[in-house]
Amino acid sequence: MRAWLLAGALALAPASPPAPVVTGTPEPIPPTPASCTPTAFAPAGTRGPRAGTRGPALLLAGAGLANVPRSTLPWLRAQMRGPASGRAGNVVVLRASGERDYSDDFYRDGRFAWVQEILIPPCATPAEVDAIAPYVDNADAVLFAGGDQSHYVAWKKSALIRAVRRVYARGGIVGGGSAGLAIQGEVVYDSVAANRVLGDGSVTTPIAARDPLGPAISFTTGMFDWAPLRRTITDTHFVKRDRFGRLVVYLARMLHDGTVKPGPMYGLGVDEGSVVLVQSDGTAAVHIKGKDRGAYLIRLTRAPHLKRGTPFRATVDVAHIAHDGERFDLTRKRTTEPWRPVIVDATRSPPYNTDPYR
Predict the structure, then answer these.
(1) Phi-psi region of 278 (alpha: psi -120 to 50; beta: other; left: phi over 0)
(2) What is the pLDDT of residue 6?
(3) CB of 244 within 8 A of CB of 293?
(4) What is the DSSP letter of 183?
(5) Are 292 and 273 in contact (CB under 8 A)?
(6) Are 312 and 306 in contact (CB under 8 A)?
(7) Residue 288 has what pLDDT?
(8) Per-residue pLDDT, 181
(9) Cα–Cα distance measured from residue 310 to residue 134, given in angstroms and rounded to the nearest whole number
(10) What is the largest CA-CA distance in the chain?
């Protein structure tokens, strides 16, 4: 696999990516995991001028980008202007771990002009992170891969994230899968404390509900500010990993801690074979792969009383958007599906008065 190593000391023109330094033989060994140098993997296709887009739009996938329903890439391509039968659009995939996984499939199935994945290891310096901003400034769509969201929130104040915001502001498409979805809400469950307390970011529903003020739960605010996701936190692998209870705890914890102002808070949970595709007016459609369960909107109107070490109990409303192609208004949190109450009670096993996923 060819890879381009980015030298942090390169002078970068603001309007175009830096000229990469090609290293090694025609088939060099990829950088080792210990390497802190960002890597721009060999792209698929040829980068052209920005195509122009019909957004802003959001792509919110419940698992990794390789697991999205087949309709996802045609939808993404349709947001880019250009001949319907030809190639158009520059797509950048940002990742904090892994290798070159998506470029060829995206190029083949999406009919984009250019697809490039860029690896930014967690140990990269702030200057090296900022050095990737010109790649994003030349993109029509920017997607974040999966992994650990604590690595992405570390980029919060970077020139790179400001470039991602510019893509959205000019009508481009932003989003991601798994951890790349988890960072899109106004508030982000960031895994930072969980990595320190638990050794990984895996706060489960039982852990969260047993002690909702426990030290493993932490949030990041100010990463992004997309209108359809204001007062909203997102969660991933939703049904498969039984994350309903933990997402409700997150809503309660944010209100309790004053992370957000008082008022209704919302959770958007997306199952791992589903994707929520959001248009410029905030309307969204759920696309579902196989027998996956779609998406869930959860509403907590006011914060319940929380006490350290005391099992959690609260009532929320949930609307299940369960049918492939089903549409709803994500900005206004309106859906044709009925809202129904669910009690999350840590003294129960499982901790629900009814099946929240039905």
Answers:
(1) beta
(2) 54
(3) no
(4) T
(5) yes
(6) yes
(7) 98
(8) 98
(9) 49
(10) 62
- Give 50-62 pLDDT, tens digit per residue: 988 999 999 999 9
Contact 42, 3 (CB under 8 A): yes
Tens of pLDDT, residues 219-271: 999 999 999 999 999 999 999 999 999 999 999 999 999 999 999 999 999 99
- Distance separating alpha carbons of residues 163 and 36, to the nearest angstrom: 21
Residue appearing with tokens 């900022």: 130
Residues of the chain with pLDDT under 50: 1-2, 7-29, 31-33
Is there a contact between 211 and 309 (Cβ–Cβ < 8 Å)? yes
Task: Return the pLDDT at 1.
Answer: 45
Q: Output phi, psi for 135, to 5 deg.
A: -60, -45
Instruction: Assess whether the previous peptide bond of 56 is cis (omega < 30° from 0).
Output: yes
Residue 129, SS3? helix
Total Cβ atoms within 10 A of residue 79: 23
Phi, psi of 205 (to 5 degrees): -60, -45
Burial (CB count <10 Å: 0-12, 13-18, 19+), residue 105: middle
pLDDT at 4: 52
Asked if residue 102 lies in contact with residue 115, where contact means CB atoms within 8 angstroms, the answer is yes
The pTM is what?
A: 0.91
3-class DSSP assignment, residue 162: helix
- Which residues share a beta bridge with 220? 188
Question: How far apart, in whole angstroms, are the C-alpha atoms of residue 246 and residue 238?
Answer: 10
Cα torsion angle, 337, 295, 346, 306, sign: negative
What span, in angstroms and rounded, lies between the C-alpha atoms of 322 and 337? 9
245 phi, psi to nearest 5 deg: -60, -40
CA torsion angle 144 10 134 87 (round to 10)? -80
Q: Which of 175, 43, 37, 54 is nearest to 103 (CA)?
A: 43
DSSP 187: E
Residue 251 to residue 245: CA distance in whole angstroms: 10
Does the N-terminal peptide bond of residue 38 adopt cis geometry, omega within 30 degrees of 0?
no
Residue type (1 letter), 169 = A
pLDDT at 25: 33
